[in-house]
Amino acid sequence: MIKNETATIENQAAPILSGPGGPREFPDWFRDQQHAAWKQFESLPNPTRKDQAWRFANVGLLDLSPFNYGGPLTEKERATILEESRGLEEVAGRMIFAGDELIERDVISDQLRKRGVIFQSLERAMVEHADLFRKHFMSQPARLGSAKFAALHQALVSSGTFLYVPRGVEIELPIEIFHWLNGENASAFPHLLLVTDELAKVTVIEHFRSVNEHVPGFACGVNDLVAGPGAKVTYVCAQNWADNVVALQMNSTTVDHDASAMSLNLHLGSRYSRFESLSRLIGEGGRSDLLAVAVAKHEQEFDARTLQDHVSPHTASDLLYKNALDDHARTIFGGLIRVEPHAHFTDAYQKVRNLLLSDDAEANSMPGLEILADNVRCTHGATSGQIDEDELFYLRTRGIPVPMAQRLIVTGFLDEVVQRLDHPAISEQLHRLIEGKFAKNRD
Amino acid sequence: MKTETSAVDIDRNKGDFFYPEAHVRDAGAGLSERTVHYISDVKEDPDWVREFRLRGLKIFLEKPLPTHWASKDLEAIDFDKIRYYLSPGTEAKRSWEEVPDDIKRTFERLGIPEQERKFLAGVEAQFDSEAVYSNIKKAVGEQGVIFVGSTEGLKNYPEIFRKWFGKVIPVADNKFSALNSAVFSGGSFIYVPPGVKVKHPLQAYFRINAENFGQFERTLIIADEGSEVTYMEGCTAPKFNTPTLHSAVVELVALKGAKIQYITVQNWASNVFNLVTKRGLAHENAEVKWIDCNIGSRLTMKYPGVIMKGRKARGEVLSIALANDGQHQDTGAKMIHAADETTSNIISKSISIGKGRATYRGLVHVPKHLKNCKNNTECDALLINATSRTDTYPAITVRGTGNAVQHEASVSQVSSEQIFYMQQRGLTEAQAMSLSVNGFVNDLVRQFPMEYSVELKRLIELEMEGSVG
User: Are the C-beta atoms of A30 and A129 separated by less than 8 Å?
Assistant: First the structure.
């Protein structure tokens, strides 16, 4: 019975491993790139744990054979997704994707459009703004281990968000993007191409969610984030896939002189989620803040790999990753601060903290440094521990029961990261998502 | 510049001499089963050792070089050109008078007999593949302490030797431990009976004299219940034009309540590949402490480890690495917690000068369901020149609650304010730099035995010469 059902789904949807598909019209040059990328995907070997970039990772979870291009959306599903895509009260613009289909777009204000802000789908941008698109689209190679999956993404990406903020334009309200996985074994290839020109300012928050709670799915996303000279870019990712989803995300940020980029990744959902963050500091005075919070429960595995690449002198970066682990969850942090030759006067910091809440949880930390210049200040730290008995005792003496006291301590531990965003509405939203996860798991 | 009484060979030029070879036993260049049989025949190995060697060879040939994480420089080793066994064909002597003159001259130039008289409880001197001298102070020998070469240990004390040999570091641990298992020769075998505390250090001195040679000593130290022992090793080789290989395996076993302190001052010539596997097993309440100073060699890859197998066992690695032009010191530590209430401490300090590269690579493992384990890791790196390089690659795995693990690392350079301040007080820039560097390692060096700390500071001063300005 069950077998028949699966067979029907397979008949409906083509497996992603059959290669680039989709009915959409793309320019020839883009199609060519996709076919080249597909060849590359096929020729690159599957990662193994012996690769340093995949050390400790459960690579066995990366079997892509079950996944397919999601089928068409029913009216009911579409309505549900639109209904559930509630985010901030006020946004400057919003896009909602189901699978790789853009199903709704709240355009930016006329005022912003007149000042030259471009906010449109990827497939339109590659036609209307081909030069800008080609200059920045996946211009950075995936250096953190997932070259194979970046190639897969490039071969199969069919939609996404293109956002260009011209010189001197400051968008005060955040831009909000939702990505939804819908249906069993569905896949999505989310993409955000964000380019800011000199002294521009923008904040983007991306939500990753599933329509169905426990069904398997696959997401393989790439983000290109470009902070022009003096620009200020804030990127927030709220990953809350269903608990059987396998997700890979490769983000690369380029920070020009006097620019500052801040990213915050919140990891709540998925079975296995790998997040690669590359931050390149290519101009003097550039600064990059990399933040992440993960709440890992049950069998979840969160695999974060980061590279703070100081290419230019006089640059600063600061990384803070915090993981709370319960049940049989595992986390992996593989981070590297790299100071290239001549990148003197680098100031780089990296800190990962693991809070273990169960005897079966496992935290792996690999904070790394590669320093090829002098006159630098580089520090890193990694700690793993558990809830402080004294803190717990203090709360109990105030009449707070143990489970609640534990939750308070854990959320306090994680909030330190969330509060580093200078955007109270987003911080509040992330806080609620974290609370939501704790509440859900009490059932 | 250098007195004959130093405990450490501080001047690299001092070891840079060699005498013509007069080897009676020579396994020839290249490695095959024939080489292994040759060594086994010469050493009259029992069958199990011969099989052990052959298994090592098989694994060595099967395993790839670890270049997916390690330096590509390893590919510069030509295993077919290396000579795997060279010896004068005589047994280790108990007195220096019996040691052949040219070999004795070598060690006299290095000051070994002098030091033995002054402060050592026993000395073993290895020349190429075999120990040429091995002696232990009478009083220490009378306590039942065994201190002999590994060949002799294997022959005369098989019941203790076999029980622990290859148990701490399995043959297949890595490519180079397999290589050592195939062709090992020399090294020390030490057994300290229960409750015996050896007051003075035992010392081994390793000397490579021949060109295109590989030294593969094998050391096994067993400290029985409640005993204590300190072991020091030093090493030199002349600077030949072709690379030399040194690939040792060192296994330490500290039984209940025992303490082993193992001190290495590695000052190989700058064309030596120094690829060493060192590991200790600490039983209940036992302590294994590695003090590891790496000054010489072209590429050193060495990560002393402690497996804390018994409750309340302790492991410690104190490491100083100095990488000058053309050198890569790839060093670190491994701490495997395998019982409750075990504690480990890693302190690593590295200095990169000129184009030198210092790498810290660490592993801390706290597996499931252990309680009250603690690890503290501190790595500090100092960069002297703009072309110097340093890396830190720790890997930390912690499972479960009830354990505390912390890792901290920093990279810095001598601040120009410090230098300016000292110059103002009349010091030259070089002196000021040297003083700052000594300050950087001082809190660690202070924990070393006195003879070593003094010499180490002088050695660092020497290496610093000409690096400023």
Answer: no
Q: Residue B400: inside a domain, yes or no?
A: no
Closest alpha carbon within chain B to A376: B412
| Residue A261 counted as domain residue | yes
Q: Is residue A406 part of a domain?
A: no
Q: How many domains does chain B have?
A: 2
Nearest Cα to Cα of residue A286 among A209, A229, A366: A229
**Model pLDDT, residue B167:** 94
Interface mutation target, options A58, A371, A376, A389, chain B, most CBs of B under 10 Å: A371
Please, which residues bridge with residue B306 across strands?
B280, B335
Query: Coil, strand or helix: which one is B68?
Result: coil
How many domains does the structure of chain A reveal?
Answer: 1
Name the residue among A248, A237, A238 with its Cα closest to residue A272.
A248
**pLDDT at position B7:** 40
SS3 assignment, position A422: coil
**CA–CA distance from A38 to each of A26, A305, B391 (Å)?**
16, 24, 35
Q: What is the structure's pLDDT at A191?
A: 98
**Cβ-defined contact of A379 to B399 (cutoff 8 Å):** no
B228 in a domain, yes or no?
Answer: yes
Give tens-digit pLDDT for B55-69: 999 999 999 999 888
Domain membership flag for residue B316: no
Q: Whole-model pTM?
A: 0.90
A382 and B397: CB-CB below 8 Å? no
- Give the domain-ending residue among B302, B331, B360: B302
The whole-angstrom distance between A120's CA and the closest CA on chain B is 42
* A:B CB pairs within 8 Å: 132
Residues of chain A with confidence (pLDDT) below 50: 1-11, 443
Count CA within 13 A, CB hemisphere, residue B88: 20
User: A294 pairs with which residues across the strands?
Assistant: A267, A323
Q: Are residues B291 and B427 both part of a single domain?
A: no
A369 with B390: CB under 8 angstroms?
yes
Query: Which among B386, B395, B409 has CB closest to A373?
Result: B386
Q: What is the pLDDT of residues B218-238, one digit of tens each?
A: 999 999 999 999 998 887 777
Q: Is residue A394 part of a domain?
A: no
User: Does residue B376 form part of some domain?
Assistant: no
pLDDT at B2: 35
Residue with tokens 């999601």: A70
The pLDDT assigned to A12 comes to 53
Range of the domain at B423: 414-469
Q: What is the ipTM of this complex?
A: 0.85
